[in-house]
Amino acid sequence: MKREYVITVQGALAAAGAFLSAKLGILYPVLCILMGTMVLDYITGMLASKNEAIDHPGDASYGWSSRKGAKGIIKKVGYLCVIAAAMVVDYVIVFVSAELGMQISV
What we know:
This protein is mainly α. It has helices at about 5-25, 25-55, 65-100. The longest helix has about 35 residues, at about 65-100. The protein is flat, with a radius of gyration of 21 Å. The protein starts with a helix and ends in a 7-residue tail after the last helix.
């Protein structure tokens, strides 16, 4: 790879990280840890399916398949949707309570 390309990608990732950190505040490290564990979970699932294929070489129902991989990714997207919905509900509760004159410490 060309050095300029690597520097451009690093700059873009740093800018995206800084933007998200500014917008999310204290939630940014937590969401980074969540994303990291999701990636680790997906990788370990792929390694487990490879091990499963080695243990059962003649059976096509064992091992890695696109369907199983897609199912894992869809499940992780579902997790992120639930977290996003919870964050929206939290924001609405805090915003509405402020409009009603109630103090909720976060």
